[in-house]
Amino acid sequence: MQIVELLTPDYEAAWLPWAVQYFFFIGIAATTALTAAALAFGKPGSLSARLLPAAVVVLLVTAIAAPVSLLADLHQPGRFWHFYAHFTPWSWMSIGAYLLPLFVMLALGFCLLWWLRRERLLRLTGLAMALLAVSILVYTGAEVMVVRARPLWNTLLLPWNFAVTGWLAALGAMLLVGRWLPGGLGAMPMELLRRLGISALVLVVLGVLVWVATGSLGLDPSFPAALRLFEDFPVWRLSLLGAVLSGVLMLVMLARPAARLGGAGYSLLVALVMLGSAWVFRWVVFMSVQGVPKYGAGLYLYSMPLGGDGLLGILGMFGLCLALLVAVVFVLERFPSFNPARAGH
Amino acid sequence: MSKSDETPSTGRRGLLKDLLGLSAAATLLPLAGAAQAGIGDQPPRRPGIEGKRYGMLVDLRKCIGCQACTVSCSVENLPPIGQFRTTVLQYEVTETPDAPSALINLPRLCNHCDEPPCVPVCPVQATFQRTDGIVLVDNERCVGCGYCVQACPYDARFINHETQTADKCTFCEHRLEAGLLPACVESCVGGARVIGDLNDPQSEISRRMDAHKDEIRVLKPGMNTDPHVYYIGLPEAFVNEVDGQAGIRLIAKH
C-alpha cells in the first residue's frame, strides 16, 4: 500500500530554542555544582582546589543564565507565579519549579562562601547543593522522559545522557573560563581536567552502548525509532555522523598529554568542542525531535525565526553569559579572594 | 418527588444514601485523590454536565473531505489563521500499482481521552478533565509552557499565537450546554460526525457504535489513552502513524 499525504497541517514546535538553552545551562550548572561540591573538599593547593575557582565561576554564570532561558521558554512568562500559586505535585515541571530556585540560591550561596573563604560552611553548603543538583538532574531528565507521545524521548537513557553530556560541557566551560581568571591557564590543573573529561566521555559512550544494547534487545523502543530516522532521512544520518565524529575528536583531543591543554588556542578548541557537542545534542533532542511527526509522514521543516523566539534568543543567552562572566572576572580582579598560589582558601 | 411518593421508604433511604454518598464523594474522594496522585497520575476530574460522558463517532465512509468542519470550527472558536482545533487530513492511497488511487479523509480533533496524557503534565492545573469527559484549558491560568502540546500523542493541541496559551478542541462545550451540537457536527454535510452521551445506551452514538462494534477503531490504541473519538472505516495503515510520502503542508506564518 502506498500512501501520499495530500493535505496535512504543519505542527509547530511548542518548545522553542529557549528550551535548548535552558537544558544546556541547567545541565552545566547541576554537574558543575556536583563537581564543585567535591572539589571543595580538596586540601589548599591540591589539584582539586586549583580547579575550584573555574568551577565556581561556571556555576555562578550558568545558575543565573538557566532560569532566565526557562522563563523565556514560557509563552506567558509574566504568569510564572502561577507555578507557585497552584502547586501540582503530580507534574515534574511543577516539582522542578520548586527545586530550581532552591538550587540556584544554594549555588549562589556556595559561590559567595567560596569568595568569603568560609571553608567549613562552603563544604556544608556544597553537600546540600549537591543533593539539590542531583534532584535537578532527575527532574529535568524525567520531565522530558515521561512524554510517551514522543518515543525518542521516552527512554531512561535520556536523563542519563542529559547529565553526562552536561558534565562534559561543564568541564569544557571550566577549561574555557580558566584563561580569564587570575593565574590564567597556567593555574589550572590540566591533568585533572583531562582525566575528568575522559571520564565524562566514557560515561557518554557507556550511555550510548546501553541504549544500543537495550534497543537491540527490544527493551527500549526509542532505539528502533531513532534507527528508522537514520535510515530514512539524510539529515538524521548527518547528525549521527556528527555525533560519532565529535565523540572521536574529543577522545583524541583529551588523550593527548595534559600539557597540550595549556596552549591558549588548543584549549579553546577543546573547550568549544566539548561545549558544542553538548549543545548540539540538546538541539537535536529538542528541535529536531519536535520535527518528527507524531502521526504524519516525513519531517516537519523548522525554520528558525531570527527574533527572540529563535536566533536572537540563542545569541542573547550567550551574550548574557558573556556579560556575567565579564562582571565576575572584573570583580575577582578588583577584589580577589584568592591568589593562584593559595587557591582554594 | 413523584418517584419518592410512589415508594416512600426506599425513596427516603435512597435519598439518605445519596446524601451520604454525595458528601463522602464531595469531601473525601477529591482529597484522597489528590493525596494519592503520584507523579503522572490523573488528578480528580472537575464537575461537568452531570451524568454524561461525551464521545464522538466519525464515520469515514461518509466524510467527503469538504473541510466544512474545519471552517465552521474556525468561525465558531476563532483560532488564529493557520491554526486549527479540528481539520481533515487527506491522503491518497494506492493499494496495488495497477489499482486506481483512493482518497482517505481523516477528520482529526481532540480525542477527549479517558486517560488524557496532557492533563497530569500541566504544571499549574490549567488543563483539566470534567466528569463528562471533556478536556479543557483554562487559558487565564495557562502559562504557555507547551508541556501538554508535547504530551498529546494526537497533535490535538497547539499554542495559540494570539493568546500565547494552549488551545484545543472543546467539543464546543459552550454549545453542548446550550443544547446545540458542536459546530463541526452541525456543519458536516455527510453526517459523518456524531456526538453524544456514551453513558446513555439509547443515544444515537451508542446505538451506532453498537451496530458497528467490530468496525470501530481509535487512533494510537497503544498509547493507552482510551480515546473517545471513534472511527468507522479507518484503515489499519492509519491507526498508529502514516508510513508514506510527506505532502504539502500548510505552514502558518505569524
Automatic annotation (TrEMBL), chain A:
It is a multi-pass membrane protein. Its main location: membrane. It is found in: Cell membrane. It comes from Pseudomonas flexibilis. It comes from the Bacteria. The chain crosses the membrane at residues 20-39, 51-72, 92-114, 121-142, 162-181, 193-214, 234-254, 266-290, 310-332. Belongs to the NrfD family. Pfam families: NrfD (PF03916). Gene3D superfamilies: Formate dehydrogenase/DMSO reductase domain. This is Tetrathionate reductase subunit C. Keywords: Cell membrane, Membrane, Transmembrane, Transmembrane helix. The keyword Protein biosynthesis does not apply. GO terms for cellular component: plasma membrane.
UniProtKB/TrEMBL annotation, chain B:
One of its GO terms (molecular function) is metal ion binding. Residues 1-37 form the signal peptide. Residues 54-83, 100-132, 133-162 form the 4Fe-4S ferredoxin-type domain. The keyword 4Fe-4S applies. It holds the Pfam family Fer4_11. InterPro entries: 4Fe4S_Fe-S-bd, 4Fe4S_Fe_S_CS, DsrO-like, ET_IronSulfur_Cluster-Binding, TAT_signal. Keywords: 4Fe-4S, Iron, Iron-sulfur, Metal-binding, Signal. NCBIfam families: DsrO. This is Tetrathionate reductase beta subunit. It comes from Pseudomonas flexibilis. The lineage of its organism: Bacteria, Pseudomonadati, Pseudomonadota, Gammaproteobacteria, Pseudomonadales.
